[in-house]
Design a protein that fits this description.
Blueprint lengths: L3 H12 L3 H12 L5 H8 L1 H9 L3 E4 L2 E4 L2 H10 L2 H14 L3 H10 L6 H16 L3 H14 L7 H15 L2 H11 L6 H11 L1
Antiparallel strand pairs: 1-2
Length: 199
């Protein structure tokens, strides 16, 4: 827990800065793996330079971090949910790494969207293929959340998530997910797969 007076002091220091500098620090709060090139594409190299001069961020080789960890927390507390969602989507557009992009698409999206769910589902499959089981399960959960229930992909996304939950050992959550989602409209193959998971 952060003492309120310290958080308020840092928040006041940050809120007095121009919006583009606050946005840069917020980006670091949302993704701790951002590089100088990433921030250059997002905010512009001149804004990054200003943030360094203002003592808000530190550049170490190509890595960028807040000058103090609590500055990132202050940036997050000052931002609205709409600003956070929008910045997640902007990060997804400028980052070169597909997995990072998919994570930001997932975190910046609240409503079901077929195109976004496909991006996140593909990232879940890639994470699973390289053995990142927990990351795959988290991304698969976002893919289900973003898939419209009326979509023909919804049953398979549910079953993929259930299988990933089984792999990481969350069997209670897996059982609840499948039991609550299983519907007569599912194909025979999907129904068999669901019952095998429940068994």
């Amino acid at each position: 827990p952060v003492p309120g007076d310290i958080e308020e002091l840092l928040g006041t220091r940050l809120s007095a800065r121009p919006p583009e500098l606050r946005r840069l620090v917020l980006a670091l709060a949302l993704d701790g793996d951002l590089r100088a090139d990433d921030l250059g594409r997002l905010c512009g190299a001149e804004v990054l330079g200003e943030a360094v001069e203002a003592g808000l961020v530190v550049v170490e080789r190509d890595r960028v971090r807040p000058a103090h960890p609590l500055l990132a927390a202050a940036a997050r507390s000052l931002a609205t949910e709409e600003e956070v969602d929008a910045l997640h989507m902007q990060l997804a557009e400028v980052l070169a790494d597909q997995q990072q992009c998919a994570v930001h698409v997932a975190l910046g999206s609240r409503d079901p969207d077929g195109e976004k769910s496909a991006i996140v589902a593909s990232a879940a499959a890639r994470a699973g293929a390289r053995g990142a089981t927990r990351e795959a399960a988290v991304l698969a959960g976002h893919a289900v959340r973003l898939t419209p229930r009326s979509s023909p992909q919804f049953p398979d996304r549910v079953l993929d998530l259930a299988d990933r939950l089984r792999i990481v050992g969350d069997k209670t959550e897996m059982t609840t997910l499948v039991a609550d989602s299983l519907a007569p409209s599912w194909t025979p193959f999907q129904q068999v797969r669901a019952h095998l998971l429940l068994a």
